[in-house]
Amino acid sequence: MRRADLTPSTPPPEDPTGLQSFAVLLRRMNAEFNRIAQEFAQAQGLHLTDVQALIAILDADQDDAEPGPMTPGRLRKHMNLTSGAMTACLDRLERAGHIRRVRAEDDRRVVHLHYAQAGRAVAREYFRPLARATDAARGRFTADELGTVVRFLAELNRQLGLVRR
Fold this sequence. Notes:
The protein has 165 residues and is mainly alpha-helical. It has helices spanning 3-6, 19-44, 48-58, 72-79, 83-95, 117-126, 128-138, 143-164; strands spanning 99-103, 111-115.
């Protein structure tokens, strides 16, 4: 028997575009985003759920499934919270100056949730380092590569939305 036959074979390096690599990288990125969001929540005297609600309110107009201003009912469904929990969350956000509740012009029964300018300014300042880091990472790729990344992330979000439903 040759010595080479006794040496355990080492598995080939993980495929950088394989599912396992994607899973690890996405978990790491998600963990970093969660850490940053948790720190912001603590700094603002909020719950992590409140920060998740703020993100949903901020991104409501970009929602492909249901674009337009966020409403408490839509947010409650999005976050899978009870009516009472959603009301408590919105009350905290409003008291902290992060959101405004505005009655719709065409139907006064409908309430729209808007990210308040003061809250937006606080968030913008807090997350400025994250924006700089994102921009630095983007700067390392060509426009074509970034187009592929955007298409991938959009499709991944679409697929995750299907899994949730």
